């Protein structure tokens, strides 16, 4: 069975973006970016919430992960702006369960907080990789948008970069 991996950058105080969706403060350059981009080769499917997907629009990006099958979860988008991106609006949990049972590489959950909360509460997230950036945001969009059950995690790998970024790779226990 494929693993669903929530692989996300966050501030030390646990935010993945500012309230307006901007990402000022996250380090945009460095060896951590090179390693992150290299790690994407291990996935063949990516899942995104609508807000995460629409973030790229400001840069003219409608096909953010061209080497992967891309799914955007939204109840409000009626049509995908790119033929390589498939919209999913219903039966999210069943859809992801089906994806996990297909043959293939692990599945990349790149955000957002609402989708992560839904999938975590359904016990579908197998690992969480946090790209911890060395700054405090103070307020913003949290790693999870709502209440989740207290859950033990096992640290299975970590990487510290010279610029202070930490990659923390956790297996979800239970």
TrEMBL record:
Signal peptide residue numbers: none
Membrane-spanning intervals of the chain: none
GO biological process: riboflavin biosynthetic process
Domain Bacterial bifunctional deaminase-reductase C-terminal: 2-167
One example GO MF annotation: 5-amino-6-(5-phosphoribosylamino)uracil reductase activity
UniProt xrefs under SUPFAM superfamilies: Dihydrofolate reductase-like (SSF53597)
Listed InterPro entries: DHFR-like_dom_sf, RibDG_C, Riboflavin_Biosynth_HTPR
Pfam entry (one): RibD_C
Protein name: Deaminase
């Amino acid at each position: 069975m494929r693993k669903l991996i929530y692989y996300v950058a966050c501030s030390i105080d646990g935010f993945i973006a500012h309230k307006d969706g901007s990402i000022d403060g996250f380090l945009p350059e460095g060896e951590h970016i090179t390693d992150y981009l290299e790690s994407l080769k291990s996935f063949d499917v990516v899942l995104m919430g609508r807000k995460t997907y629409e973030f790229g629009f400001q840069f003219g990006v409608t096909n953010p992960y061209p080497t992967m099958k891309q799914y955007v979860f939204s109840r409000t988008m009626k049509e995908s702006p790119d033929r390589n991106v498939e919209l999913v609006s219903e039966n999210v949990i069943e859809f992801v369960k089906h994806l996990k049972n297909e043959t293939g590489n692990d599945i990349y959950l790149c955000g957002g907080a609402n989708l992560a909360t839904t999938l975590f509460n359904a016990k579908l997230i197998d690992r969480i990789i946090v790209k911890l950036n060395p700054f405090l945001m103070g307020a913003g969009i949290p790693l999870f948008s709502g209440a989740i059950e207290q859950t033990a995690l096992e640290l299975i790998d970590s990487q510290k970069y010279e610029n202070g970024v930490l990659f923390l790779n956790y297996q979800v226990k239970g």
